[in-house]
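Two proteins, back to back. First:
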Amino acid sequence: MKKLFLKIVFLAGVSLVAVSCDRNLDEVNVDESRISEPVASKLLLPIQYNMSAVNYMRANDFTFDIMQVTLDFPNEGNSLSRYYITENTGAGFWNNSYKWLMQINDMKKAAIRDNDVNYQAIAMVLNAWVYSNLTDTYGDVPFSQASQLDEGISQPKFDKQKDIYIKLLDDLKAANSLFVVAKPLTGADLFYKAESDVNGITNWKKFCNSLSLRLLTRILKKNGEVNVHQRIQEIVSNPTVFPIFQSNADTAKLNVSGVAPLLPPIARPQDFTTGRAASAFFVETLKANNDPRMALFFTQAKNIAPPSANIGYKGAPSGYAYGTTFDYQPSNMNQNLSKAPLNILVYPYAELQFILSELAFKGIIPGNAQTFYESGVKATIEQWGSTMPTNYFANVNVSYNGTLERIMLQKYVSLFFVDQQQWFEKRRTGFPVLPNNGGLLNNGNLPQRLMYPPNPRVLNTSNYQAAVQQMGGDNINIKTWWNQ
């Protein structure tokens, strides 16, 4: 398992005061490691960096395996790529998310105290980003009472996913109305440079409303129970009030320059490729597309027999049958994907285009599903610095064919390295159709959620038990609310 190396960014403006010999014990016993009066502008940068790094590693360590992008290789034991899940599979993700949610909460409170509406709105957007990923991973999670240790709540209740979604969507709508686009931020902003870029706050608004569309599309099945279609149409029909991403330039991403403290989450590039291979499904999907990024993403496979010649791009089947032998060394991931400079994708413009394509395909919004689809495919290629090939859509494997399956397959490709979004969308739609190569566990069934990690089970037992009863169990085959 790859290790998560989080580089904590020190908060500027916090000075250490030496203890003089004439200070009394009350003065000495103050915990000066904690900021008693946090400033919102100093909290944004470490939240952005560290949660982006957490999600980058979540894609690398979890989504790649479960969604047949990579696999442990060689391996015939219990592995994630075979759907072997334990209570610890998401423990680090849970702990890190709640750690930074507490910082987001502090940032929001500081912004409200100082009447800084832009930081307040940004905190609400970041909160929705992190919490949506948490609830989509586990289902019901601590929410309304979380991050309230100062209020004496150390054992928060688990809120229902429906209630979490409704509150997050309401918060995003409220955040959109709070932003003051003519007012720059007073501190560094890693996503949009809103301290200096005149379009920075407008881009935050676009992120806010595009995130709303991600969440609303996730709960399409619950239209009627929640006013999903109405909220979608409200955003799409009024771009002046609810701006959304218009190009790759609007993508929410973190540029990792390689200059401290903006260092790659993976400290040693060799750790990115040790004991793994590229999955045949992902490799063959890109090969069928004649994707120009093959060399950017993969190494070439080699014959095992001397002289170990290159045989092109060829992955290993995820969950291959026990006893399978290989006469080739499969393609692996290109180590450059873990080296600076790199962009950590938080929410790519391409994803939004596929969302709009699906919504148009289903008749929920006006517009041409094919146009949105082709825009998404093009943006997917260009977001990695590649050039869209001429006549790319003449290829029958990538041309729009009027099916949701085609839209979702190319959306899957576009979500490469975007936290756990491939998994969430596969659970929601059933696409892409992943092969069972004979060695998958759990009867070949894709896990629908993760089990709660040990911390809440041991330290918040009564609320954990109530949540388990509320959800119908704590196992990987329980469907979360939006997928029932």
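And the second protein:
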Amino acid sequence: MTALDLSRAAWRTSSRSSGNGNCVEVAPADGRVAVRDSKDRSGPVLVFPPSAWAAFVAGLDAVRPD
């Protein structure tokens, strides 16, 4: 497995962020979606295929309170 180069990734804070410091950041990465903890930007990164990320976000929408 080859390491994914994220040195030029365009990270953005999740639209679900409430500004309380419990945030994730996402970035497109070589046809995938990379996710990291905004408090630990040099820490581990999870990488998902777009279909898995879309399913995750759809699941959030299904349980999001109004």
